[in-house]
């Protein structure tokens, strides 16, 4: 008998990434998280997305737009398109301002894989569209991301 409301099984994996616990390049735009435990992604369909993001550091980040790209993850290239013609998928775009807004809703379909490290590429733009890493007036900015992996099984 056909079931109208058949729900597929879904597992959630939550990953907290803190830029204080990774290897960062001097420009603070590449962050390698290489001390992660083995994360096995095994679903029939797998989605990765950002649940939350926050910044901290000296001064205000008002007027800065941030782009966070994800490296070292196999993703479905047939389901991802980006106008910047860069093969690195954008995981998050957000602007930290007086109300601490953040753009939720971007998802990336990833392949079955074992993940033991992640690399984030972070690019910030100020009001003058000057490109920079996680710095503000030569002060270090730290970022916390909560990344969710959703594994769907038929």
Task: Offer a concise description of the structure.
This protein is mainly β and 154 residues long. It is 0% helix and 53% strand.
Describe it:
- With 154 residues, the chain is mainly β.
- It has a single domain (12-153), classed as Jelly Rolls.
- Helices cover 0% and strands 53% of the residues.
- It contains no helices and 13 strands.
- The strands form 3 sheets. Strands 2, 3, 6, 7, 10 and 11 form a 6-stranded antiparallel β-sheet that branches. Strands 1, 5, 8, 12 and 13 form a 5-stranded antiparallel β-sheet that branches.
- The radius of gyration is 17 Å and the shape is globular.
CATH class: Mainly Beta
- The tally of strands reads 13
Q: Number of helical runs?
A: 0
Which percent range fits the helix content? under 10%
Write the H/E string, N to C: EEEEEEEEEEEEE
Q: What does the largest sheet look like?
A: 6 strands, antiparallel
Instruction: Tell me, rounded to a whole number, the average pLDDT.
Output: 85
Poorly predicted tracts of residues: none
CA radius of gyration is: 17 Å
What percentage of amino acids are in beta strands?
over 45%
Tell me the overall shape: globular
Taking the alpha carbons of the first and last residues, their distance comes to 17 Å
Helix/strand/pairing category = mainly beta
Q: Architecture, CATH level 2?
A: Sandwich
Domains counted in the coordinates: how many? 1
Q: CATH topology, what is it called?
A: Jelly Rolls
